[in-house]
Amino acid sequence: MLFNSYEFIFAFLPLTFMLYFYLNYQKYYKLSKLFLIGSSLFFYAWWNVIYLPLILLSMLFNYRFSKILAKQEKHNKIILLIGIAINLALLGYFKYYDFFMVNINLLLGSDITLLHLALPLAISFFTFQQISYLVDAYRKEVKEDNFLNYALFVTFFPQLIAGPIVHHKEMMPQFANVKNSHINLRNITLGVFIFSIGLFKKVVIADTFAVWATRGFDVAETLNLFAAWFTSLSYTIQLYFDFSGYTDMAIGIALLFNIKLPSNFNSPYKALDIQDFWRRWHITLSRFLRDYIYIPLGGSRKGEVITYANLMITFLLGGIWHGAGWTFVFWGFLHGMALVVHRMWKKLGFRLWRWLAWFITFNFINISWVFFRAQEWDDAIKVLSSMFSLNNVVLPRFLESKLGFLADKGVEFGFFYWYMEILIWMPMVLLILLYCKNSLQKAETFSLNLQTALFTGFILTAGIISLNKVSEFLYFNF
Amino acid sequence: MSNKKWLAVVFLVLFVNMFVLALINYVIDPFGVFKSKFFDHQLQMNERFVKVDYLQENHQKYNAYLFGSSRIGVIEPKVFEQYIPQSKFYNFTLSSANLYDYLKHLEYFVKEKYAIKTLVLQLDIDNMNDYGQDSDDYLSLLHPDVLNTSLTLFYAKYLLGFFPLNVKSTLETNFSEKVLKTYDLKRGVWRVPYREKALIENATKYVKNKKCFHIKNRRVIHYTKEFQDKKALQRIVNLCQKEGIKLYLFTTPHNKNMMDTFVLKDYHRYLNDIAKITSFYDFSGYNSVTNDNTNYYETSHYRPQVGKLIAGKIFNDLKVSVPSDFGIYHKKGVLSD
Prior knowledge:
The structure holds two protein chains of two kinds.
Chain A: H1 6-25, H2 29-45, H3 52-71, H4 76-108, H5 123-138, H6 147-155, H7 157-160, H8 168-176, H9 185-218, H10 225-256, H11 274-280, H12 283-294, H13 304-322, H14 326-347, H15 354-373, H16 377-387, E1 394-396, H17 400-403, E2 412-414, H18 417-435, H19 439-444, H20 450-465
Parallel strand pairs in A: 1-2
Helix pairs in contact in A: 1-2, 2-6, 3-4, 3-5, 4-5, 9-10, 9-20, 10-15, 10-16, 10-18, 12-13, 13-14, 14-15, 15-16
Chain B: H1 3-28, H2 47-58, E1 64-68, H3 77-81, E2 89-93, H4 99-111, E3 118-123, H5 144-147, H6 151-160, H7 164-175, E4 182-184, E5 189-191, H8 193-201, H9 203-209, H10 227-243, E6 246-251, H11 256-259, H12 264-277, E7 280-282, H13 304-314, E8 328-330
Parallel strand pairs in B: 1-2, 1-3, 3-6, 6-7
Antiparallel strand pairs in B: 4-5, 7-8
Helix pairs in contact in B: 4-10, 8-9
């Protein structure tokens, strides 16, 4: 079930909310927890019930392993490594098997049959969440003796499908707090406010730009200079509003249940360097990569060269986590390289003007997203070639009378159809991105008054009436 | 302001806005799904819903169907009826249809025991290079009964959706003297009377003024997403055999300027794929009909007279002067180059 669907907004969410608090009101605390887990699994199974056993087995396995880790004093590291390996094997089987086999076939000239498996929804998210739990259990930072609590930690529906990737220690005390089992009007107000912003970001902004991004990438080989830039910028905008919109909705929904999820975005396109960007973009994934890959590898404690290598390894893995393809690996490589260069730059003590630092960072991110979005390597190259070639400039036909002399220089005049719409939307959205407070900053300064109520009422209306463009979230694919 | 008051204002604003929107959508009915009929002319309609809704009440009046995208929508049922005794055709043209539409509807008709003796299916490369339904496209959502989904949810989507352009164009059509497009639900055909009149009065002038006929196109349309379509075509052929339905299949005679957009190697592969599944008449390519722009409203849609030539060729009607280069019959098997 999608957050941006009628069935979720008008049926699933209100019913789950009411029944959960009714059970709590009757002091059936255990039953309410069980009900929330059941609802979350129903929410998950709505897409495809066939993968329900998979998530259940994964939970049972990891819970059991964490218990062994908690009891055992000897050989804990081996047990942990086995646990992680089994989790990664599951992920590898569903997500990476075909990718590896295609490459093996290519290298060895073999003909190993591909599986063409559909990727189980949220597998990357619930696998990472549970790996982090195993590591925390190994470090004796968490202990869970109740399977219901563990199941709730993994399946809690606002964060189940696409994060934020949460830690057990930041979730379970909240579920355990009896105060949180009663309706809290302040949290409902704030939850509705943040959810409305998220819904608007997703269905009004992201889905509008999605049309242009998809259209551009579908005809990558015929894009002219401007169309190629509009295409890549449209995707850059779509991706941010899509994913941060989803996260806002998740945070808002969780608040209705008195649960505070960690923030995942902090105006990433305002970043002035690549390190700054990764502190603002998909914060909980960055936190995971830092705590469970970069630091265990040695982080920055083993000299400059090893630090650079650790950065590269972390980001190559981050790249492939997003998808089984060389374009994702290359995207990770680009970001790893950018972080290495940025680190060297900082060491040398160089500084840039703020506007130039922003310009370089934003354009690097925009260009690297082309690899992230392209389905084939060729598509990425075609879009990028068009973005940087002056041999394919097409201007709108109405300019022909004034700029016709440019035809001698190879400039063509033709259809501009969809660009005109983008030209209206893009400056507005870029201004919002660069100069407006983000949703969580707005939530921090939120006050109860007529202005915020009307604002919320109108953006919620705009979101709901745009539900006719039902579309999945981009991060569901990862 | 208290939390309760704040929430009350938010939901009041939401409720009032939704109510006004639902009222507008119901009264103006830009997709024709509510049959509210406050306005006479329907510029656009969701043919998939409206036609199935009509046939649910009237299917016993028909025993033959024309299936195809909007391009087949100008062929009058009687054009085919004259060749098949006792046949009563319904033109089940659907805008931007693909094999998914044809298969789903044929399966539904068979399931509902509609009496079908003949099926005429028009294919073009667009039909075979896309599969499924675009859930954003409110002109094309299938009738919930065809998909076995909720009718209430379907109506809710049309009531609560925001369709400013469709509402605007419906109002414009009804307050303008020019009726650009008409639908005849009983025969299933559509008409563009204003264009047809302009073509009858002065075809040369019409063609000269229509920009799309004079644009130099590039061959950019590939044929790469055919996997599911081929399977669907095979299932249609099998279903026709099983149910004793006589199937006539032909390819769209695309205007030459549209033919210029297809990658020829891919186009040939598309024809080959059809031939591997069934026999068919191929009217596409460059011939004296497709090279003559006066046979078209624009580069995508041919005029009714082309439909007569198609039927004349299929039924070998010597009274119809079908140009000798128009239409080739391909027997099931691999095509020659």
